[in-house]
Amino acid sequence: MDFNLARVHDAIAAAIPARESLVFRDRRLTFGALNERSRRLANYLLARGIVLPRERSELEPHESGQDHLALYLYNGNEYVEGMLGAFMARAAPVNVNYRYVEAELVHLLRDSSARAILFHAAFAPRLAAIRSELPGLEILIQVADGSGNELLPGAIDYEEALAAAAPERPDVEWSPDDLYILYTGGTTGLPKGVLWRQGDVFPAAMGGGKLDGSEKASIDEIVNGAREGGALRLLITPPLMHGAAQWSALGALASGHRVIFQGDPSRFDPDDVLSTAEREAVTMLVIVGDAFARPLLDQLSRKQYDLAALSIVGSGGAPLSTAHKEEIVERLPHVTVLDAIGSSETGGQGTSYTTRGSRASTGSFVPVRNTQVLSEKLDRALGPDERELGWFAQTGRVPLGYLGDPAKTARTFPVLDGRRWSVPGDRARYAPNGVIEVLGRDSVTINSGGEKIFAEEVEHAIKLHPAVFDAVVCGRPSQRWGEEVVAIVRLREGRAAREEDLLDSCRKHISGFKLPKAFLFEEEIVRSPSGKPDYRWARARVSGG
Fold first, then answer.
1. Which CATH code of 3.30.300.30, 3.40.47.10, 3.40.50.2000, 2.120.10.30 fits the domain covering 449-542?
2. Who contacts 304 (Cβ-Cβ below 8 Å, separation ≥6)?
3. What is the average per-residue pLDDT within 141-164?
4. What is the model's pTM?
5. So what's the pLDDT on residue 41?
6. Which of 3, 10, 367, 392 is deepest in the core (most CB within 10 A)?
């Protein structure tokens, strides 16, 4: 069956209204309170003229027939209410990267055709500077945040908007065809809005799938599962402006679990995260790869925290290296590390579990249903016994396309033997044990001397050296090799390593032709708030920019 996200969350709130759903600072919201606030936002948007001009049946895959609400926010209850409120109004929420400069913001808000924006007051000056360039942005809803910035002209205070709106269920007919839009980060190009049917993204990424690979079959099954479950308390550390965090939060709520945010969502403070985990007896800590794991592990070496309730450290959205998995289970032997892989264009595609005493690995995943490897030429699906290098792909519940881009939609979502696939660009191959080895995005592959070298594989090898805090690898032009591998390395505080030391360590894990030809040592490595490498920055740095 297909489900609508507004209907799912509305039904769960009706079933368990008094159960705590969300904790942020001193605010503790029950499912009933969260639902009422989301309904009020939906009714406010509807009263301001937010509509659904065209139904899905009238549209091409790359088109949206809904009005869009941009979410320009740090983590907190307002972000979750913004998503749910938009769904309830049959609008589509649009994630805005709060690190964007003015030109990038203009591009995204124009590209998404946002009619309304919900934003923290901290961002009011930046929004004011570009307001004249966005005539289609009609509705401004400002969230007070202690920044001291005054209400923008024409904007309404968020709490005042909710107080003036009705708490009843909005008078619209929700549909599984209503959109969920997720803008990609744009680390290797301009960000694109991925269009999902809600009926597809719910089982693909947000709690509508079951552990055995099947899907929940009725709203009663969803509600009963939430009523009988709810044992987990998830601390979501990555920004909700990225898919991994949205999927974790909405999936947890759709299962009746509690979602928790650290006190200061404007930056990653490991003491804030671990103190929150201790205070709230968090059972699952959600992070994004090495960029989150390394600071947490360093903090655990400096200060003791009572994390007896913690049972899972879940990572997705960026690679989590073998070295960090091993260190997590060494420091927290009662914890299981869940490493998940997927993308904005596929939903969840595979998982890997590490416990103390088990063998950790990086880049190898047990595929979920409908995850396969397609051939190099995209002309057939490979079998698990074929070792050919191909493309990491998904079929079944996949997105409709990219907003406003029919050409990229056709390239990324090809049809093979009558089945529609999503092929975002990761290279992969089957391993002998039935898992899939994911080697990295083809767009950051380095072609050196006729050999393809995957940046992530070299990054993992470098990070196995105990002195390395972080590393990013990219190619730069070379007269001899065409491209040569260059590593940008950040060392751990108080540690030292020579290039020769790093090369000796890498030789134990990767072939000689993959070794970096040069190293740059930096005090900071630029990454997105979700932990993904900024390869544009890396290329500029290695080329002298």
1. 3.30.300.30
2. none
3. 97
4. 0.88
5. 98
6. 392
